[in-house]
Amino acid sequence: MATDDGTDIDATEFVVEPDDDDDEWVSLPIRVRNFSPWAQSMIELEAAGPEEQVPTYAASVPGWRSRTRGRLTDLLGAFPVSVPLNAELTDRVENPGFISERLVFDSESTMSVPAYLLTPTARRRPGPAVLALHDHGAGKADITDLDAKVGTTRPDAYASELVEAGYVVLVPDLRGFGERADPVPVGKDGCDANLVAAIAAGRHPLTGNLHDLARCLDVLEEHPLVDSARFGVVGFSLGATMALFLAAFDTRIRAAVVSGAFSSWHNARHVPFNLCGSEVVFGMIGTIDHVDLGALVAPRALLVESGTSDPLVPIDATRTAVEQLESVYRAMRAPKAALRHHEFDGDHRWDGAVTIDFLEQWL
User: How many domains is the chain built from?
Assistant: First the structure.
């Protein structure tokens, strides 16, 4: 710390010179004061720690997973009440190798979900289907090439890659994105605005999204060319967080691809802007973490994808979480390849180099 004239002083104490009536020097401690709400949360969460450590003995895993599922259920709170889907298909376009349609269905009495339904033209009998979830961007259009300029492709159009690989693909807009985006002032995050409105109404946006995604699986179950025993989910960043939660929550998911998200909230919280309003529920840090959610996916297939220089998802934290999760997969006698970690040279982006092979193995 320095005075106005630039002189350095000890930040832990301030020495007061004696006055005329006192011949002793006095050392007064300086009170450390914090003005940052974020820093306050960091101080409190640093001392919190996880509610339960990942078990190292196989006999401990079943009970731990049961308690973890109970904590997840408590955190998510009450889910919306389902209503008939009333699904409608419009805007049918025949593309090279697949058909694209706009699908809309009701997830609850006051909420509908718009999505793209992509169907391979070569599909003749029921087969696997994948739910493709977008990141924190413009919504479902971001991960397809449907509106790209002729002759160009998007580097993260993994929904288009999946249908070209032969999967029926459903690509919904998450709440607050794409056709479901509400107007917000420039510089304001729509996820955070939605969180404020939802909390005022007594809802969790994350729970609402999970409800919508479970209803997406209901839609796919009714598709004549889909085998409901062969569901996968793929997502990047925000979409990866939703994919991880969905696979932990809904056991209909047989294989999940989580790209650019898997590490720990306890680690990610050190970046003030690293969590958005769509990804949080009250009191989650210290109660349930990524490795806990991964343990609820086990022994089903899980691919974790991460960039070695991702500033939002530090690779060391991902490696530690995957290593912890491996002990759970071993304890549950899962096939060795059921949990896979793909690292690539790069930052916070979609890679997808092993995604198709991974899904072909498990779906």
Answer: 1
Residue 12 vs residue 205, higher pLDDT: 205
Q: 300 and 226 in contact (C-beta within 8 Å)? A: no
Are 257 and 235 in contact, with CB atoms under 8 Å apart?
Answer: yes
Flag whether 283 is in a domain: yes
Residue 10 lies in a domain: no
In-domain check, residue 255: yes
Tell me the CATH number at 310.
Answer: 3.40.50.1820
What pTM value is reported for the model?
0.88
Structure tokens at 61: 């895993």
Tokens of 327: 């002990």
DSSP 8-class letter at 142: G
Locate 99 and state its tokens. Answer: 């058909």
Please, is 127 exposed, middle or buried when counting C-beta atoms within 10 Å of its C-beta (0-12, 13-18, 19+)? Answer: middle
Mean local confidence (pLDDT), 106-123: 97
Residue 69 lies in a domain: no
Is pLDDT at 224 greater than 90 in this prediction?
yes
- Say what the pLDDT of residue 354 is: 97
Name the strand (E) or helix (H) holding 308: none
DSSP 151-212: T---TT-HHHHHHHTT-EEEEEPPTTSGGGPPP--TT--HHHHHHHHHHHHT--HHHHHHHH
Task: Give CA–CA dist 298/358, Å, rounded.
Answer: 16
Residue 217 and residue 252 in contact, taking contact as beta carbons nearer than 8 Å: yes
133 and 177 Cβ atoms separated by less than 8 Å: no
Q: Is the omega angle on the peptide bond into residue 37 within 30 degrees of 0, that is, cis?
A: no
Task: List b or e across 77-91, with b for residues whose CB sees 16 or more CB atoms inside 10 angstroms.
Answer: eebbeeeebebeeee
Range of the domain at 194: 75-362
Q: 């793909």: which residue's tokens?
A: 342
- CB of 217 closer than 8 Å to CB of 89: no
Pick the closest to residue 163 from 223, 96, 222, 215 (CA basis).
96
